[in-house]
Amino acid sequence: MTQWHKDSAMLTLDYAASLAQQKHAFSTFLEQATQQQALSVVGLHSSLVMDQFDSAHQQVIIKLINSLLRENIMQLQGNLLILPRKTLERKTWRIEELKCLSSSEIISMQQVISVEQAQPISCIELISPLAKLFDSEKLAEFGRDLQQTWFNTALAMAFRLLWGQKLNQHNQNFWHYVSQLNTSSSYGLLEQWAAVGHPSHPTDRSKPELNLTQILAYSPDFNAQVKLILGALKTDHLSVDSAAKGEAITSADIRLYWQMYFPQQMQAWQQQLEKLELNAQDYLPIPVHPWQAKHSLPHLFYDELQQQKLVLFEQVTITTLPALSFRSMLPLINKAPCLKVPVAIKMTSAQRLLSTRSAHMGPRFSRLMSQLLQKLPQVAEYFSFQAEEIGLHYQSPNKSDDKVASHLSYICRQNVCNLAKDGEIMIPAASLLAPDSQGQPLWLSILQHQGNSDWSAAMRLLAQYSNVLCQGPLAFYLHTGIGLEVHQQNTVLICDQHGRIKRSITRDFGAFRVYLPQFSTMDLPLKFHHDNRLQTEDPAQARNRLVHAMFISQLAEFIKSLTRHYQHDEAQAWQVVKTAINETASALANQLDNNWLTQEINAFLNDPWPMKALMRMRLQTTDDYLYFSVENPLAKD
Known about the structure:
Blueprint: H1 19-30, H2 33-41, H3 46-51, H4 53-70, E1 75-77, E2 80-83, E3 91-96, E4 99-100, E5 106-108, E6 111-114, E7 119-120, H5 123-127, H6 136-167, H7 174-179, H8 183-193, H9 212-218, E8 226-234, E9 238-242, H10 251-261, H11 263-275, E10 283-288, H12 290-295, H13 297-300, H14 302-306, E11 310-322, E12 328-331, E13 338-340, E14 343-347, E15 350-352, H15 356-375, H16 377-380, E16 383-385, E17 388-394, H17 402-405, E18 409-413, E19 425-428, H18 442-450, H19 455-480, E20 482-483, E21 491-495, E22 501-506, E23 513-515, H20 516-519, E24 535-536, H21 539-566, H22 571-588, H23 594-606, E25 609-612, H24 614-619, E26 627-630
Helix pairs in contact: 4-6, 10-11, 19-21, 19-22
């Protein structure tokens, strides 16, 4: 029988537990007094969560099966899901009410039936035979994450029902509601409303280090507010970079920056230092996530805390909204910068720390972006960026340790709302696909608000979206050789009051790739971090960053949402995207080297798309990246 661990929100893994047994275990856990109290804080009750049990499982098992199919672990023949005879025996399951896109990706189904036992199975039972193919410990870890994703998805779906009802008390069009809010309120709402999970990662909602209370208190999908703790770090124990002055920025500059945006907190911060008889001139402020302050820093920085090289003031806080990325925090202070901080918990299989490379390269690249867009005014009409104004991380005077430093660092990122013009609305790209309280995506609310929501209107919206991305990040790449990670989470779309897409903004410069031969034509310097993986002599590495982020994460997911709603084939939609690519190429024909432009446009239009094998990477015993290729829909006539 499946049971819950006593002190965590994680099931003891039992591959043989049936759907009914899993449901009983979920329900039993939620009936505990501690969990009931945690649910009540956000207005939830166990019965409402359990009402979402089946829908949550359906969502999770669809992502799981799509991963198994994409990565060629299982095969689909008609409505039969087959594990080939690589193990001791061939396994077959029947998928009821199966619906797929023309790419064979599953978009809906009822349940998965065991052919041998003739009964529905759970996602956990489905991965059980993989124990003969993969490392047992890795599979067990994956299974626990899958199980917690299932539970957290049910939680989030239940909360979203209540949240949606609260937002839609007057039963109005969701876009109309959003467009009536002020710029910062609408943006903060959409950042959290968009937190509906990764489009393809099967364990996207697992947070194994967090208990139920912490999941509800820290996650954007629960409309959380998090109070960051403002600490103090000795100036001789840190390294800093800035967009304005580089590493030449002074401690006085940084304190002045913080004073400008957080005057009340800085006054309290200085008073706390004085109480300890410490000189504020010897310290700089450092924001710390409360989970990090309690669970990570006390043992990693024990000596520094004892010696007051690092001081944490739990009573000096900044109230923030956790954004889509969980560790990017939006202060509830007008015009204040977004604060990106490390949180040493595992989400989608990686710890969410903040590397020294990001702390330095973010500000450096922001300075470069400003210079590049000044040189490229035609690109700047469609494309801009959130500057990472300050990056800071711990650095011991005695030795450098990037791994330890990634636990105590931060980035101040320009408030995106400061980039809005009168009448403009900032939309995180991921929010376009997030369903409202009626279950329909934001893009459909936009079309209904405009008065025409038929297929042709959807194609016009897709044309706007495609044109903005092609004239922006695609043209930027063709000019500079820089492939940016402009995926859904890193892109903000700027719309007018009617929802027409005008421009895009990119953010987060931790993992771009620079193709050096093309970048050299811009005649601008960029000082790379000693971790130099951001630069390459292979154009495919830079190009594929853009392919995955712009085409796979953004446009392909948007097109799936359109075709799912209208029951249309995707081919016409991809022709709209292809037209935008070709128009961009034509506009650049007299500006760029013909061989380079032809090579890259042909690659975008014809080369197969590389995708990370997310599930195989979780199940292997090394940290190597694994990729597989999928058909490029732009290559179809």
